[in-house]
Amino acid sequence: MKTYLFTAAWGVFVWAAATLFFRIFGEEVLFTPGTEAFMFSIAMLLVGTAILLTLVIYLYTLFDKKDYAAIRFGIVGTMIGLVLDSFVFSNYQMIFPNLDETQVIAFSSWMSFAYALYLVIPFLFPQKIRQKQVVRRK
Predict the structure, then answer these.
(1) Are 106 and 39 spatial neighbours (Cβ–Cβ below 8 Å)?
(2) What is the pTM of this model?
(3) How far apart are CA 14 and CA 2, in angstroms?
(4) pLDDT tens by residue, 48-107
(5) Which one, 12, 44, 52, 75, has least CB within 10 Å?
């Protein structure tokens, strides 16, 4: 249980950092879907997201040495983020007061792909697997 609380705390941190980034810089980096600016912006945001998630997962695995730590972090972090983002979308005018509706759609587009990265990137890390030693009787 203690491991999951630690993992959940990291997940909340990742979610809060991403939400804060879009609250501060959302107006400058989110564009109307379907435009060239949108495609370029989303591509750059996703590249940055992949790099940052890789770094965060690496840092997490330095602290959590248990079996499948990276995968557990990806799953738990995604679950927490999705639950918290359901609140964000329900109250987007309060959370993102400077974003118009098309920018919120752009944010949700980025978010969907970012959560896919959150689930896939941990599989790129080598997983520590404890192998049970079989004791053979002679």
Answers:
(1) no
(2) 0.85
(3) 19
(4) 999 999 999 999 999 998 889 999 999 999 999 999 999 999 999 999 999 999 999 999
(5) 44
pLDDT in tens, 101-128: 999 999 999 999 999 999 999 999 877 6
Indicate left, alpha or beta for 86 from its phi (over 0: left) and psi (-120 to 50: alpha): alpha
Q: How far apart are CA 114 and CA 8, in angstroms?
A: 18
Question: Which single residue is written with the structure tokens 């969907």?
Answer: 112
How far, in Å, CA of 55 to CA of 93, rounded? 31
Q: How many angstroms from the chain centroid is the CA of residue 55?
A: 12
How distant, in Å, are the alpha carbons of 29, 41, 68, 105 from that of 108? 13, 13, 29, 5
CA 75 to chain centre: 10
Beta-carbon contacts of residue 123 (< 8 Å; ≥ 6 apart):
70, 71, 74
Gyration radius of the chain over CA positions: 18
Q: Fill in the amino acid letter for 1.
A: M
